Batch of 2 targets.
Target 1
Amino acid sequence: MTKKSEAVLNYHQRTKHTLQRYAKGPESIDWEDQPDHFRHFSGCEIVDLPLPGTELDVLFSALDTPEAIPVQPLNLVNIGLLLELAFGLSAWKQFGPSRWPLRCNPSSGNLHPTEVYLISAELEGLKAGVYHYVSHDHALEQRCRFSDNLPNASLYIGLSSIHWREAWKYGERAYRYCQHDLGHAIGALRYAAATLGWSIELLAEAADADVANLLGIDRIEEFKPSEQESPDLLCRINLGHGYTSATEINHRALDDLLAAVATGIWFGKADSLKAYHMYKWPIIDEVSAVAHKPRTVEPDYQAVASAVLPALTTQTASTLIRQRRSAQHFDGKMPAMAKAEFYRILSAVLPTAPAFKVWRWSPKIHLFIFVHRIEGLQPGIYALPRYHEALAQLKAGTLEEFSWQAMSAQLPLYRLHTGDCRQFAKTLSCHQPIASDSAFSLGMVAEYSNEINDAPWHYRRLFWETGLIGQVLYLEAEAAGYRGTGIGCYFDDSVHELLGFKDDQFQSLYHFTIGKPLEDNRIQTLPAYEHLFNKRA
Ligand SMILES: Cc1cc2nc3c(=O)[nH]c(=O)nc-3n(C[C@H](O)[C@H](O)[C@H](O)COP(=O)(O)O)c2cc1C
């Protein structure tokens, strides 16, 4: 094992919540002094995107066969829709004097550490260059103007994280949440693109240094020292579904982009995120440094079979994307969820489902499900190994007394244990009732230690995969007339003990729950972009 892998394993161990103590975080939080949720760069030209809110008539069920969706042209209107449906505001919430925005992509604690950049060839209304997306204003800030145009229709999205924005509330565990949020962001982008008949491909080969250079976040003098952005991911946007990812092509594409950036003119300086930096969490910088991604050779793009059980909704994709929310309470007396709905949701998270076409790596995450209220299924613990060969490993790694009874010819779903597991689902999820009052909750279990030993940056990739699964679950829950919530707070090793993991071959990296939401009528919901309509009127 290398020192770097060891450092990553140590970070993970150190940031576990246990029944006796939570991972290290701030002792007190000044809610009046939150970091600014929206980064702005002063000194850039602003490009207002066309006003948001357009309804599209593509059905959510049509996203199961995305190749059949009409391909929208590349223009500012559709770039605006792509960014809005992936990362834009979806509503404002108000409770007494407090008012806070929600977005189409979720974020742990609603802190949104993920920043979004667009790299574009010249279009009508947009010069070739690098832009930062400001979701509050639904506008682009031009950070770099290229001196030469990029090849026709080139469009990329880059993602980075401001770790400090998340650590402000969650302390040392925040680095994990930033990675979850990135996985959700990939998922959000995939659904938004599919709605336009477009698709996304991860440039999985890119090094962190490539991403930092392309997004201009290695220009460290333009950021406050503790408010730097860490590079994460780069995706190519395709009009249609002509996937081209192959290591050679992507390395060349990266080199061409780097050349364009090197001869471009840069503008602007990041404004301060304002809040007072009361606590310091150096472990986050340390793990971030050792989990650094080099340029890699990755398997060529392989088309996966799109197999998914039928969607049971007639709503449009854009409606469901904009209405996605996290449930804060569930109706513990809900009628049981229909088995067909449950099975559809599970089929949508298998690596063969359409949303996972974006995933360039082999699947490493499996689900352990606490069934509470599903028609025709006894409450208990179930498992969904996400590919067949993992079954034997998971059987060998878990409690001997688990029965592993196959439940369905359509899905790799197994019952391990029968019995009411509401109480321990809640206790394991930091005592949160959302894990027990739902139809089901689950833990996403990673093939862990071998992956980290292979390369420390795989730590991030495992979390990204859980976030992508989480985003599929959020939207599938809405489509079925239910609601989901991501659960980042759980007692790691108590989950492992319950399942019988004896070492760190497997680790649970993210939890999730789906049920019938109870609305808190004291909290008002307000339109997402009224401020913009007023401003631009
Ligand atoms: C990675 C992640 C972890 C989360 N963990 C929890 C949790 O433990 N408990 C909870 O009530 N909500 C949790 N949430 C939900 C967030 O609080 C929610 O996404 C955020 O407040 C924004 O609200 P929205 O999802 O309705 O847009 C989590 C969300 C994410 C993405």
Target 2
Amino acid sequence: MTKITSTDTHPEGNSRPVTSRQSDIHPGLSALAERYRDLHFRKPVADFNQLAFDQASELLSAHGGPLILDSGCGVGDSTRVIARTYPDHLVLGLDRSEDRLVRQRQEPLPDNARLIRTDLIDFWRLAATAGWKPEHHFLLYPNPYPKPQQLQRRFHGHPVFPDFVRLGGTIHCRSNWLIYLKELALALELYGINSHITPVPDEPSMTPFEQKYRNSGQAVWKLLSVPPPDPGDAK
Ligand SMILES: C[S@@+](CC[C@H](N)C(=O)[O-])C[C@H]1O[C@@H](n2cnc3c(N)ncnc32)[C@H](O)[C@@H]1O
């Protein structure tokens, strides 16, 4: 019988580090991100994403905010951790994989958290257009797409990036590919947003992918954006 394993349920230490012909930031990133910054992304929104967004809007209205997004939440372990850490916030875990979202986890979903099946490319655009302002935006271990020709599949090289930025909030991104975070930092800088990249502290893993990379002896990194100064603080 075939043994079916999955990173999310079996975070074993057999993961290989990201390899890429890229040894640093993609040379085409700045030009691409600048082009997308000045372009209006017009792809039609899929019905299932509109429905997911409408349902999420109802949840947000009923809760009243503040809001935290956990984009690409996978099985939602991080959504659970964040919701426990911020009990007064509504925490929405977003992922396109139904299979991951419905996977049985040890910990029940806290009352202030919901997992929603959606494609971020549409959801972020709808949320930004509706004026959503999450206080924090988590993007934990996004698919790296490490081949140089895959730059446009990385979120910071995608035409949706301006909407991700428009949503605002403190950005928390983690990756086992440092170049991904350096690129994200550069793309954010084009919008005047500064960030810091540091090793993920030696604390319990927030997600199954983090656990898997650690079990495999890989370094994991985090990017944290620096919130813009509060105008009220100016003397
Ligand atoms: C490498 S996994 C990381 C999952 C989880 N954050 C973790 O660290 O365990 C990347 C996740 O992003 C989701 N994802 C990638 N692109 C997406 C998109 N455009 N819309 C929604 N989810 C997406 C995938 O389904 C997958 O669950």
